Amino acid sequence: MNIIVTSLFVEDQDKALKFYSETLGFVKKHDVPMGEFRWITLVSPDQPNGTELLLEPNNHPAAKEYQKKIFAEGVPATMFGVEDIQKEYNRLVELGVEFSIEPTKMGDTTIAVFDDTCGNFIQMAQQ
User: What top-level branch of life does the organism fall under (predicted)?
Assistant: First the structure.
């Protein structure tokens, strides 16, 4: 068994698609109409057949409340691995991404946390 799709609640699918593709550099894999919303997934450009990130609309009241509460507490909604966290941090800062935690060493891992502008904090980790 393996993970093929993981979802992330977002406030606006178009805004999220733009941020995750243009700013973070993920590649759109699927964009399928699903009634009022769309099934939008992205993948790492280095792993086109890897785990897909689903930009899930937060239109359900429970999803919206969950997203708001973890954001208010500063809890990252998910974590992305990077090869060089300082380089990625610098690149994202130049693009205007706001960080709540700058690169910080935690044992053998260095982490940083940024605001995805779509209702989530995202953690980056270099191991």
Answer: Bacteria
